[in-house]
Amino acid sequence: MMKMAVLVSGGGTNLQAIMDAIDSGTITNAEISVVISNNANAYALERAKMHGIEAKCVSPKAYETREKFNEALLQTIQSYGVDLVVLAGCLVVIPEIMVKAYPNKIINIHPALIPSFCGTGYYGLKVHEGVLARGVKVTGATVHFVDEGTDTGPIILQKAVEVKQGDTPEILQRRVMEEAEWKIMPKAIDLIANDKIEIVNGLVKIKE
Fold first, then answer.
1. Contact indicator for 83, 3 with CB cutoff of 8 Å
2. Strand partners of residue 118
3. What pLDDT does 34 receive?
4. Could you tell me which of 61, 71, 151, 167 has the C-alpha nearest to residue 111?
5. Which of 46, 76, 86, 104 fits a 20 to 30 Å CA distance from 56?
6. Which segments of 1-144 does DSSP mark as H helices, in order?
7. Region 128-134 average pLDDT
8. Is the dihedral angle over the CA atoms 125, 59, 15, 41 positive or is it negative?
9. Separation CA 200–CA 73 (nearest Å)
10. Is the distance from CB of 138 to CB of 113 less than 8 angstroms?
11. pLDDT digit string, tens, across residues 105-125
12. 111 prior amide bond cis, ω within 30
């Protein structure tokens, strides 16, 4: 059974999708050991508690330096003996020490089709604002492994979503979550939990 730590910063809709997928059997051979947030007021922590999952807050405000916060976050994750770290709406920049501690064991969901609308500055609604400002007709979401760069790790799954006339950033954000994020994140976790993924020359191969 693969153990996961899920890192969140806000409402936890992707966390809910993961918990629902485990309950329904869409994700097999995996369980959430802990949910960790940098934000003590994140509703995601309540979602975890209601589901009987341990919920912890590790806030940068509680530490003198970013380095001390990074070390505390890593130590908290390691204390649960997890096999996979899932970033589900986590706005913390993942430090290099964590990437080195969990090589190809950290995954992230990004609300666009990488390499479009990604990298520094593209997070949350800013992604969808960028999509609408550019006038593209198709957007989507990407699940990828996390490396030392920003949104640069090997891509696991992507799903396209139509941009419609009259979309606002909020409306588009909701459609991308419902049609893409909440589907491909659980699918990626299930693939990893059942050893269906390998990385060859920096690219993800999905085993039959």
1. yes
2. none
3. 98
4. 151
5. 104
6. 13-24, 43-50, 66-78, 96-101, 125-134
7. 97
8. negative
9. 30
10. yes
11. 999 999 999 999 999 889 899
12. no
Q: Tell me the three state secondary structure of residue 55.
A: strand
Assign 208 a pLDDT band (cuts: 50, 70, 90): confident
pLDDT at res. 184: 98
Q: Read off the pTM.
A: 0.95
- Smallest CA-to-CA distance from 42 within 16, 87, 9 is with 9
Question: Catalytic amino acids?
Answer: 110
**Do 157 and 184 contact (CB within 8 A), yes or no?**
yes
Q: Phi first, then psi: what are they for 55, rounded to 5°? A: -125, 130
DSSP letter (8 states) at residue 52: T
Give the SS3 label for residue 26. coil
Residue-wise pLDDT tens digits, 51-88: 999 999 999 999 999 999 999 999 999 999 999 999 99
Identify the H or E element spanning 174. helix 169-176
Contacts of 172 (CB under 8 A, 6+ apart): 128, 131, 132, 139, 163
In this predicted structure, what is the pLDDT of residue 12? 95
